Structures are given as structure tokens and as C-alpha cells.
Fold each of these.
Amino acid sequence: MSDGIVRIDDAVQRADEDDMPALALTDSANLFGLVKFYGAARAAGVKPIIGADCWIENEADRDKPARLLLLCASRLGYRTLCELLSRAWLENQHRARARIARAWLEQSTEGLLALSGFLDGELAAPLLSDHGESAERIARGWSELFPGRYYIEIQRAGQANGEALLARSVALASRLRLPVVATHPVQFLEARDFKAHEARVCIAEGYLLGDQRRPRRFTPEQYFKSQEEMARLFADAPQALENSVEIARRCNLDIELGRTRLPAFPTPPGVTLDEHLAREARAHA
């Protein structure tokens, strides 16, 4: 919604055309696209993976939160993610961005898988500044919060420092015996859509397209890559691609659509819900 121009139906169609067994939708700190995506993916025979790009509060510097990708492995995980995001928006906004406090995750992470966040994650700064011990401490901490459910995320989308971080992330995962997973951030459908995407970002952030000082957070590589393209891109790290399939197998969220779910509202004895609503409406008219 804020930094992408891919329509849900188009993304699902592209996945179906490429015979992808699964596709993930991870909105930024929300689940707004869940219902439409879940229905479209199931209808196309593509397994929908539901999650969110979450921002974890940095207690030392509130202006520098860390990205953590959370995926729902089960109904319980979905409910936990809903509670975390709702609480973040209600209790912990900073500069119009909802932050999840680490202490909340210490209460329960059951049913959730976590990916480290690559360049925006907490591991990036210590790894790129050669603070290996700090990175190991951070990674161990997250793996303890998500036992058997924490993955070191790597990407190749043309980002600055991307290759350096990838190499150091893989080395860290090897030292700690943690799984590595290859992901790809999709912001537009075709490579030729990059300029249109940049225009969309400028509109959202209040910049002019020709402004040389505006932040450039995206690259022309962030289009919807095929399985073949991803296989070539990570030919030197096949296990990272295999783990993406393993994650898809582990995520089994079943949602019933088309049914309204509202809490039972108490009414006085012998008074129906419709009658009570009518009385209250007249009383406060």
C-alpha cells in the first residue's frame, strides 16, 4: 500500500503462471490485504502465506527500529500477530509507525516464524561494521525467542551493501547453525515498472521525481522474479531457496471467509438484539 504498486490479483496470477506452489503477502505493520489475497490465492491453487513486515522498537534510539518479518504458521500465530500489531498501533506509535516492543514477544511467539529482516534487520549494522560478537548475541537472542522458527534472511535485489551483508549473514548462520532463507522484495510486477513505482513513492513521500536529494530505497531489481530467475540468482546458495519452500510447508493458516464474526452483545431479559438497538437509538436521539 505504501511502497508497492503490485495488484494482488496480478501477483497471484503471475505466481500461478509460473507454477509457484506458494506466495507470501507481508504488508507493512498490518494485514490489510489478507482477505483479498487469501481468497485470490486459494482460488488459483496457490498456497497463501500470511505475515507482516514488523518494526521492532529500538529502546536506545526510537528513530531506528529494526525490521522483523513475521509469518503465521498456524491459527494461533495469526491471532498472536493480530494482537501484536493492534497493540503496536494503539500503544506504541512513533513518527506514524507502529512499533512492537521486544518484551511483548517474550510473552509468546508460538505459531509464528521470524525472518531476520536483511538490510533493515537488527543484524545488518553489526555485521556490516564487523562486530561479529554483537551480531552473534543478537541472533542467539532471536533464535531463543523463536526456537526452531528463526531464519537468517538474505536477498539479492541490487541494494547497496547487499552482497557484503549476504556473505556475512551466511557466515553467521553457519557459525550458529541457524537456517538461511532467500527472499525477494517485490515492489512492482515487471522490470519496466520501476520508474512508475518511483513516481508512486515520490507522491506518497512528498518528493519530486527529479530531486537528487530524495532517498532512494528501491532498485530496478525489485520486480516479480520467476522461479528460474531466483534459482540463477542463488545458484551458490541452493539451501537458502530450499528453506523458502520449507517455510511454505510450515505455514498452514486456514481462514474461513464469507462469514461475519461478531461478539454476542448482552441485552435485557426478554429483549431481542434488534429491539434493544431500536430502544437505545430512540433514547439517544
Amino acid sequence: MSSWYDAWADRYDEPSSGAAADAAFYVALACEADGLLVELAVGTGRVAIPVAQATGRRVVGIDSSPAMLARAREFAVEEGVELDLREGDIRELELEEQAALIYCPGRSLLHLPTWADRRRCFERVAASLHPKGRFAWNAFAFDHQIASAIDGQHADASPACLCAHDPLQHRR
């Protein structure tokens, strides 16, 4: 099955500002976790590989893109780490055992198209964590009016309203 992300899997790891800054955060959480480690939207393994290296444990990585998973497999072999990579939809997360840590770096949760999709993902994560498990993710603050206006739509470029929006205008 093909994914929208397959088209840029070969360019995904090109340097971008601050893209790797979050890896240390997730590594620290993983080192504290006692049990299964799961990365949602694992992509090419940018975070999963350092987590596996630091903990010496297998990391389950889930992604909808076969091309991203193929790159992650290559990189994991190159780095000598064990990743259990699975093609799947993070909104339908199902694990054989409850996880100690589930994390979703790189603002990937925001790639889910609707609020209902995000809620479904959170529900599946909650059902997949053991009682003392943790869920960590990255997002950014955004304008709720813009978010609700584009709910369910995909844009390759920022909508014009984002560029013209002045967040301070309401304070004047």
C-alpha cells in the first residue's frame, strides 16, 4: 500500500532547522521506561535508532509509509540496532503487550487530518499503555480558528491566512 509520505522518503532526512533536537528528550524518557518502547510515525528511524542505541532494547516503530519503513530498516542495519518496524495506521494502534512508553516525535500527530482522528489515536494509545506507562508527543501552539477552518484538509504550503494572521491584533 502506498502513502503520501512515500514520495519524499528519500529526502526526509535532509538537514532542517532543529529537526534532531527532540531525539535527546525521547532518549531520556526511554531510558526511564521499564518495558516496551513504541514510536508512532517512526518515519526513517530518526528518533527510534538513537532510542534503541541508548537503551539497548528493541523499539517498535509504526508508520503508514512503506518507503519510510524501508529507509528505517536500512538505517537500523547500518547502526546495528533492532527495530520492529510495522506498517500501520496510528489511529488503529494494537500491541501484543502494553507499552511502558509510546512517543510520537516531530509533530507527527498533527499529520492526522481531523480532530476525530487525533482523538482516536489518543484513545488507542491510552488502551495500549500499561498503568504506569507514558505517552509523549511533540506539537506546536496554533490558532484554533485556523485549525478548525482547515480541519480535514491537507495543504502542502501554508494557507494564505496563516501568513496574513497577526496574533497580536486581538490584543490591541
